Structures are given as structure tokens and as C-alpha cells.
């Protein structure tokens, strides 16, 4: 069975969903929803996971989470298993409640978190029976919907102890909590008039990561490039493997940017030192997805793995101090991000 791509680290943000098996309901009444939220509270406390937004629909739920530890899988296993045991016992049933494994998309906080929270809170009016309603009716529906964190965002009296409201409201801005709540309400309501399918989901890479090209590259380099298992089991990795896979491809772009001959990049020399530093760092970033640093070093004329590490530190220091070099580095990487 193909496994979903799971990326876990402390401070990671996720959009998580689980749907009923065969599209059947996972909540039969309000008592089920209340119990689910109680289990969510217990599990978030147990695993140190922050709940920033949620909505419970009849046959699925959405959560916006931040894990303070690298433990999303453990958190979700406990949440879904505990609720399934409760539901089956109460309704005298057996078997799977959910349709396969839960779906989790890793989110780049600064780029997508605010928009994601609006998407989650608009779910109650995205169902077909409300499609012809006008904006006013849809606004009233989400304002009255009791199984969502939205009302706690716009009314202090409706806040729930297990929901962290500060981060998202802080992103919307405002002088005080009342102003931030008003702004957030306007922000969510303005989304009703937009395409309810939400175009930003088209930006998801590998069915697992939603963020800028830089964020996707960071995720791949730090968590996926050294994956040792059967890559066919995690097809999402392939979708994140953008970029060159030979030194020659990298040399071509670096040489073009710096006005050099490609052969010069393979030789140490003062006249092209910065270009060579960047060439080696890009080889480390992209080629380490396919081969070891030792093998990359052999293809570049005999460079040790430790030399790549030292080069990485030099490049980081240089592009931090030199805007021109930083721009060159960014331009070259952008060639493979298109």
C-alpha cells in the first residue's frame, strides 16, 4: 500500500483532515461531536499540540495544528483511535470509521496560515445545499455554526480553552483584541464571494507540502533528501524533486550568471572563487538527493564530504553579507523552481 508522505519536526504547522469510510458520517449527533472535542482537548494536552482552528462536519473534520514536538503521527493515532473506539461502542458497530489514513499537509506558516484558517472556517457554507444562498445567509450560517472555532475568533464569550487564537489574530493585525476580531470576521466573510474551492490548494507539492519554493526546498533538503526506504512507497517525494540532477546542468547556469566558462568552475582559483563556492553549494543541495557527498566529490574532481560542509558555511556567510551574491544565488535557484 502506498503510504502518505509524513514530514514531522518541532514547530511544524499542518492542515489535517479525516473523512468517514465510504463517505459515511463520523458524527451521528451533537453528543458525538462533543465527545470528539473532549478527546481533542485530552490529546492536545497529552502531546503538546496546539489547536489553532477546527471545524466538524457530518462526515469529516478539519484541524489546523502546530506540533511543539515531532509527533503528529502519534497525536493523530491517539485522536482517531480513541474516537473510533468510543463511536463504535456507543453505536454498537464494528470496523473502520475513517476512510484510510488521515491526510496532513505541511503548511508554511507565514505564507498560508491565515488563508488556511479562512478556508477551514468557511467549510459549513461550502456544502452543496447552501450553494445558491447569498452572502448574507452564508454569513449567518457560519456565525451560528456551533462546531467550529470561528465563533471563538469573533466573540470572546465563545472561546474554547483548547484553541489557540492569538497567532492567527496576530497575523490579521489591530490595536486590541476587539479590533483584531472585527478584522478577522471581515476577512472570513470576504472569502464567501471568492471561489469556494480555494485556488491555493493548487500550490500543494507532493500532496504534502504547501509553501513557497524556498520552503519546499528547505523541507526536501532537511527531511526527504536522505530518505533510505523504497521511494516508490512515498511517491510524494518525486513531486518535490525539482531541479538538476547532474553537475553539468548546474555548471551551465552558474557559468551563465557569472559570465564564466563552465570548466572554470571545476578548478579552484581566485578569479572565480565566489562562483565556485556557489557551484559547489548547489551541487550539494541538488545532487545529494541522488548520491552521497563522497560520490558528488568524485565527480567534481575529488572533494571531501567535510569540504562540502565547510563550503556550505562559507556560502551562508557570504550571501548574508553580500546582496549581489545573494541575488545571484537566488536567480540561479529560481531557474529550477519554475
Explain this structure to me?
The chain is 49% helix and 9% strand. With 338 residues, it is α+β, with helices and mostly antiparallel strands. The chain folds into two domains: 192 residues, Transposase IS200-like (Alpha-Beta Plaits), CATH 3.30.70; 93 residues, DnaA protein, C-terminal DNA-binding domain (Chromosomal Replication Initiator Protein Dnaa, Chain: A). It has a five-stranded mixed β-sheet with strand order 2-3-1-4-5, sandwiched between helices. The mean pLDDT is 87.
The main β sheet shows up as: 5 strands, mixed
Number of strands: 5
Strand content: 5-15%
Structural category = alpha+beta
By DSSP (H or I, 4+ residues per run), the number of helices equals 14
Order of helices and strands: EHEEHEHHHHHEHHHHHHH
CATH homolog superfamily of the largest domain: Transposase IS200-like
Gross geometry: elongated
Q: Could you tell me the CATH topology label of the largest domain.
A: Alpha-Beta Plaits
Computed over alpha carbons, the radius of gyration is 24 Å
Question: Per CATH, which architecture of the largest domain?
Answer: 2-Layer Sandwich
Count the domains.
2
CATH class of the largest domain: Alpha Beta
Low-confidence stretches: none
pLDDT averaged over residues: 87
Percent in helix: 40-55%
Measured between the Cα atoms of the first and last residue, the distance is: 32 Å
* Main β-sheet, spatial strand arrangement: 2-3-1-4-5
Amino acid at each position: 500500500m502506498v503510504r502518505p508522505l509524513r514530514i514531522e519536526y518541532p514547530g511544524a504547522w499542518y492542515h489535517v483532515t479525516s473523512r468517514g469510510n465510504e463517505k459515511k458520517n463520523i458524527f451521528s449527533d451533537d453528543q458525538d461531536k462533543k465527545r470528539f472535542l473532549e478527546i481533542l482537548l485530552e490529546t492536545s494536552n497529552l502531546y503538546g499540540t496546539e489547536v489553532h482552528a477546527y471545524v466538524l462536519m457530518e462526515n469529516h473534520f478539519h484541524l489546523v495544528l502546530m506540533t511543539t514536538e515531532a509527533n503528529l503521527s502519534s497525536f493523530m493515532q491517539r485522536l482517531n483511535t480513541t474516537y473510533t473506539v468510543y463511536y463504535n461502542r456507543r453505536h454498537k458497530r464494528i470496523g473502520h470509521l475513517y476512510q484510510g489514513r488521515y491526510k496532513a499537509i505541511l503548511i508554511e506558516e507565514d505564507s498560508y496560515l491565515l488563508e488556511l484558517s479562512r478556508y477551514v472556517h468557511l467549510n459549513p457554507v461550502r456544502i452543496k445545499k447552501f450553494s445558491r444562498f447569498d452572502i448574507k445567509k452564508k454569513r449567518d450560517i457560519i456565525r451560528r455554526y456551533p462546531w467550529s472555532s470561528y465563533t471563538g475568533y469573533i466573540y470572546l464569550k465563545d472561546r474554547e480553552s483548547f484553541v489557540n487564537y492569538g497567532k492567527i489574530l496576530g497575523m490579521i493585525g489591530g490595536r486590541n483584541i476587539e479590533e483584531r476580531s472585527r478584522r478577522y470576521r471581515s476577512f472570513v466573510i470576504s472569502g464567501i464571494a471568492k471561489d469556494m474551492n480555494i485556488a491555493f490548494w493548487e500550490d500543494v507539492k507532493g500532496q504534502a507540502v504547501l509553501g513557497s519554493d524556498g520552503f519546499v526546498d528547505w523541507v526536501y533538503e532537511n527531511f526527504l533528501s536522505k530518505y533510505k526506504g523504497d521511494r516508490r512507497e512515498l511517491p510524494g517525494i518525486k513531486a518535490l524533486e525539482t531541479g538538476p540532477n547532474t553537475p553539468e546542468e548546474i555548471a551551465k547556469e552558474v557559468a551563465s550568471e557569472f559570465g564564466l566558462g563552465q570548466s572554470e568552475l571545476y578548478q579552484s582559483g581566485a578569479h572565480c572563487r565566489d562562483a565556485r563556492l556557489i557551484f559547489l553549494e548547489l551541487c550539494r543541495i541538488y545532487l545529494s538527493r541522488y548520491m552521497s557527498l563522497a560520490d558528488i566529490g568524485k565527480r567534481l574532481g575529488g572533494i571531501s564530504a567535510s569540504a562540502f560542509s565547510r563550503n556550505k558555511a562559507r556560502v551562508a556567510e557570504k550571501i548574508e553579507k553580500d546582496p549581489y551574491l545573494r541575488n545571484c544565488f537566488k536567480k540561479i535557484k529560481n531557474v529550477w523552481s519554475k
